[in-house]
Amino acid sequence: MQEEDLLRTLNDGLAVVVKNREQAKLKLDEALADKQAALENKEELERVMASLETQIDETKNLLTDLEETLRNAVRMYKEARTKLVSEHTAGKGGLFALGQVHGDVLGN
User: Fold this and answer.
1) Which DSSP string do the residues of 45-101 spell out, in sequence order?
2) Distance (Å, whole) CA 1 – CA 8
3) Rounded CA gap, 24 and 30, in Å?
4) By CB neighbour count within 10 A (0-12 exposed, 13-18 middle, 19+ buried), where does 11 fall?
5) Taking the mean position of all CA atoms in its chain, how far away is CA 61?
6) What is the pLDDT of residues 29-75, one digit of tens each?
């Protein structure tokens, strides 16, 4: 009888160990799946980060080009304004001289 009790106790203990082992294996499998998902997310984030860095560099280049275009436009505007003012001033002088000639002709 004592052997049967001992055998029953050992079987019960073994059943508990087997059950605990199965639960531990399930938890390990879940942890491994979580780790794999985390690695995949990390790789995706790294790809997105690299893409964003490339876009930032391209945007910086576009901004630099835009700034250069703006500087050229301002320079061309100033040159055109200066030329327009000088031609306008020269035209006024020409009109004044023409008016004097016209006045002289009428006066004679």
Assistant:
1) HHHHHHHHHHHHHHHHHHHHHHHHHHHHHHHHHHHHHHHHHHHHHHHHHHHHHHHHH
2) 10
3) 10
4) exposed
5) 12
6) 999 999 999 999 999 999 999 999 999 999 999 999 999 999 999 99
Query: In whole angstroms, what is the distance from residue 66 CA to residue 78 CA?
Result: 18
CB atoms inside a 10 Å sphere around CB 81: 10
**How many whole angstroms separate alpha carbon 60 and alpha carbon 49?**
16
More confident residue, 92 or 89: 89
Return the residue matching tokens 């301002």: 74
Residue with tokens 């942890």: 31
Distance CA 91, CA 105 (A): 21
Closest to 72 (Cα-Cα) out of 80, 83, 82 = 80
Residues 98, 78: Cα–Cα separation, whole Å: 30
